[in-house]
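In this supplementary section we document a worked example of the pipeline. Step one takes a protein sequence of length 94 as its only input; no multiple sequence alignment statistics are reported here. Step two produces a three-dimensional model, which step three serialises into structure tokens for compact storage. The input and output of this example are shown verbatim.
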Amino acid sequence: MGLSVPGAVFLSLGTTCAALSSFLVYQEIGEVNRKLSDEERISYWFMYPGKMQKIKAEYKRFYPTGRVEAWRMTLQIAAFAFFAMVAIASGFFN
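The serialised model returned by step three reads:
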């Protein structure tokens, strides 16, 4: 089973959205860490759901009108949608 041209385009779009979303997570951590003490700072390593919830909550607390979280979620959802389209375009569900 090869990757068609539409599948390759969807894969490229999904990978781009995932990379941008990842960059925005690191931006959020940096912005939150600037407001926290040295002992409370969030590490950039090892992401897991509980840690992502903490980052999101702290970002909302410090930046209630900040748009980084909304853009990150939008790009993450877009990445999953594009990856689903790759599976459909490549005939994974046939």
